[in-house]
Amino acid sequence: MDKRWGISIDIEGFSNLYEYNDATQTKAIRGLHQLMDAVIKIGQKVYPGDPNKNYWDRIFAHQFGDGFILVSNFKEPDPSRCIAIATSLSRYMLLQGYATKAAISTGDMNDISGCYPDAMKSAKNNTLGLGMGLITSIPVMGTALTKAHNLAGRVSGNVVVIDVTQFSCVPEYLIKDHEGNIGYINWMSDENSLAQEISEKAGLQYGNENQLSSLFSAYIVVEPCPPQKWIEGSQKCQNT
To answer: Mind listing the pLDDT tens digit for each residue in 143-194?
Structure first.
């Protein structure tokens, strides 16, 4: 079975922001812009798949609603790289004023367009006309997505979590807390040098632990405020 890592990352409170008022709706859309831009920069500037340098390090990313699934090119028993990517993205987004949730697991990712009806198979750019309307499709699916997404559904908060059973060696110094098979990554810690290197190469703000902690404290008192359970879940990834 294919065991490429998958990172499911989305913007926390997106629907609340989108529905609260016109100003927060604009903020929600801007957050999606920021997250997509960060994913693009990591892919293009850090892991572009250059045949002469790091072809096998290339990554794949697909948007689903207010989030993304990032998938590796091959199995990696050591999750240091995917933890660093998730950490880089989470830190950057909090510095922009947005909380995210990232969950890491493993699995496969396949092109399923061959299962589509003939009309959709022949459509250009995965877009088919419905009279004056349109139908669009995302022709990829796999357990890298479903397992990471299911893991995310088991936790609450501004967190980076990993299914520790899916990797042969998880860096324990990066784990702040455990909950069964779930390891909570201390992504606000300044100890992850690879995450900082990724951010620097991608041109993304990285900040420091004190700055991120202050921004989180400010985030939770801005309307619409997150529930207490969400705040407590977030603290499992923090030193506070």
So the answer is: 998 999 999 999 999 999 999 999 988 888 888 998 989 999 999 999 999 9
Rg (CA), the chain: 18
Phi, then psi, of 54 in degrees rounded to 5: -140, 50
Nearest CA-CA partner of 233 in 187, 184, 180, 189: 184
| Amino acid, single-letter form, for residue 180 | G
Both tokens assigned to 69: 């699934």
Cα–Cα nearest to 74, from 2, 171, 164: 2
Q: Are 189 and 116 in contact (CB under 8 A)?
A: no
Q: How many CB atoms lie within 10 A of CB 123?
A: 18
Helices (DSSP H) in 100-155: which residue ranges?
A: 118-121, 143-153
Query: Do the Cβ atoms of 20 and 224 come closer than 8 Å?
Result: yes
Q: Which two tokens stand for residue 25?
A: 């709706």
How many Å apart are CA 132 and CA 78, to the nearest integer?
49
pLDDT exceeds 70 at position 51: yes
How many other C-beta atoms lie within 10 A of the C-beta of residue 164? 17
Beta-strand relationship, 59-64 and 67-75:
antiparallel
pTM of the entire predicted model: 0.94
Among 101, 102, 104, which Cα is nearest to 79's?
A: 104
Length of the chain, please? 240
